[in-house]
Amino acid sequence: MSEEKKILSDTPRPERLSYNTKATLFLTSVGGAAALAAFGATLMSVRREDAAAFDKGMVSTREVPESGVQLATRALKWGSLYAVCGVAAISAGIWFLSGASNMAEFKEKMGSILPRIPRNNPPQSRTEFEGLTDLLNYLANDFSKKKTQDKSDS
């Protein structure tokens, strides 16, 4: 058992809930910040590409009663709503089809239905690399050689 799992299993339930809440908030904030950064970067690249058209889309006109910003904001809201509702519906559907009444029962049922992932212990290939260049060289040269040798051996 890893040290982190051992620490979490030994801690009282309220402290574990506090840890889980903090972890959830952290991951949610990181995801939200990444989404905002990506959206902002996209807007800035569009503005740099054609500033006149971008500025024209900021203000609604008689020909176009809705500005581009309003249209994009509305599309983002509906897209987010559809994504969240879709994932929730799929998750709830799988939960109800499994017939589970709690999370432990759901985990057990899914474990019996889904295929097992084989353990890679000890690892069959390299797991430590000095840097990105070392990893890319390994993938381009050594790893492909090993795969062809394994196929010729079988």
TrEMBL record:
Q: Does the keyword Membrane apply?
A: yes
- InterPro entries given in the database record: TMEM242
Keyword list, A-Z: Membrane, Mitochondrion, Mitochondrion inner membrane, Transmembrane, Transmembrane helix
Is Transmembrane given among the entry's keywords?
yes
Q: One Pfam family, short name please?
A: DUF1358
Q: Which GO terms describe its cellular component?
A: mitochondrial inner membrane
Membrane-spanning ranges: 23-46, 81-100
**Where, subcellularly, is it found?**
Mitochondrion inner membrane
Q: What is its main location?
A: mitochondrion
Q: How does it sit in the membrane?
A: Multi-pass membrane protein
Q: What does this protein do?
A: Scaffold protein that participates in the c-ring assembly of mitochondrial ATP synthase (F(1)F(0) ATP synthase or complex V) by facilitating the membrane insertion and oligomer formation of the subunit c/ATP5MC3. Participates in the incorporation of the c-ring into vestigial complexes. Additionally influences the incorporation of subunits MT-ATP6, MT-ATP8, ATP5MJ, and ATP5MK in the ATP synthase.
User: Which family does this protein fall into?
Assistant: Belongs to the TMEM242 family.
Q: Which PANTHER family match?
A: TRANSMEMBRANE PROTEIN 242
Name-wise, this protein is Transmembrane protein 242
